[in-house]
Write a structure and sequence with these properties.
The protein is an alpha+beta fold. It has 4 helices and 13 strands.
């Protein structure tokens, strides 16, 4: 059994004993434990999800609990929102192959913004997630990354809360950013 398989087994055992509401992610040999998100975080995800649901392909559903895992098992990330095929969500467990995800959406945490802006940006590109949308209530911005290649995305589009941002196919719609809420100081 290789290192990544042993590490994945360790993470699965840790998940069994971790308290409800704590999410575990991994990148290489680094474990990231995250607690429950704030009300503003949850509100912003709900506002984004509501719009995406209207345009998602018929055989895909939203997931806020699935871990997206790289083919070699070296990375496992739990986006705040992703869209996965119904057949993948019908399988036991809470892990999905990264190749099945259409998008990863993250709302930046005020306590650890580097995780979304640097670590996940790198990992989602490596895992070839076609679209990565970052909602940053600290800066009141939304950034869409697309066209992953190796360890980076080649296209970036930035907008402010209150504006709109175009989401490409397979969704193909304009996401309104008018209902997003900034963090309170």
């Amino acid at each position: 059994m290789g290192f990544h398989e042993q590490y994945r087994d360790f993470v699965e055992e840790l998940e069994r004993i971790t308290p409800e509401g704590v999410r575990i992610e991994w990148s290489g040999d680094t474990l990231i434990l995250q607690g429950r998100p704030s009300n503003i975080h949850q509100l912003n995800i709900a506002q984004v999800r509501r719009q995406f649901e209207r345009y998602a392909p018929d055989d895909y559903l939203p997931s806020e609990r699935s871990a997206i895992v790289s083919p070699d098992g070296s990375k496992g990330r739990g986006p705040d929102l992703t869209y996965l095929p119904v057949e993948v969500l019908s399988e036991p467990g809470n892990k999905a192959p990264a190749a099945e995800a259409l998008i990863a959406v993250e709302v930046v945490s005020p306590s650890n913004p580097g995780n979304d802006w640097m670590d996940k940006l790198h990992d989602y590109a490596v895992m070839r997630i076609p679209l990565y949308l970052i909602v940053d209530p600290r800066q009141q911005t939304v950034t869409l990354f697309s066209e992953p290649n190796h360890d980076r995305y080649h296209t970036r589009s930035d907008r402010k809360f209150g504006d709109e941002i175009r989401i490409p196919e397979p969704f193909g719609f304009t996401l309104s950013l008018s209902a997003l809420v900034p963090y309170q100081d």
